[in-house]
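Whether sequence alone determines local backbone shape is best considered at the level of individual chains. The sequence in question and its structure tokens are set out directly beneath this paragraph.

***
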Amino acid sequence: MREKDNIAKSSDLDGHIGADWKRAHRIWENICKENSAVVALIPTSGTITLNVSAKTLHYVKIGRVVILTGHLGVDSVSSPSGELKITGLPFLQGNYPPASIYSYMASVSVYANGLAATATTAIQGLIETENGQTKIYLSKFVAGQQADLAGDIIPGTQFQITAIYFI
């Protein structure tokens, strides 16, 4: 029997198709989840306050893959310095043997705007798990060396973040 004949015949079985569709939808809902996470920018010392309307990353989880994206906007700062972390990410990054492989199976894309005038704009993000939480570490490059970024954050700084990691 040809495929289009199958489709025509199965369309006569509306109840059956409806049951199959509902079952497939339930399975998909268990595999794929969409939601959002309210995050924070945490420096080693000092504070960074995010704008109420720009502190949420939206995510899709498909199987063991998490894809995050969103816009973060800084309202105010109080002497931030040191490392800069994005905390509040959903799901714990995978720690399957060998763990080192999964730490390299993550990717972060960062676009920053409105940093301090002296800031270096080559910025990288690294996803790691620390104290039972998955975090994105943001740093900059100065003369080919990784350096802390928190001191370059000023009111009005904005980040566009996209991250992918395994759980």
Remarks:
- The chain has two domains: 3-32, 33-166.
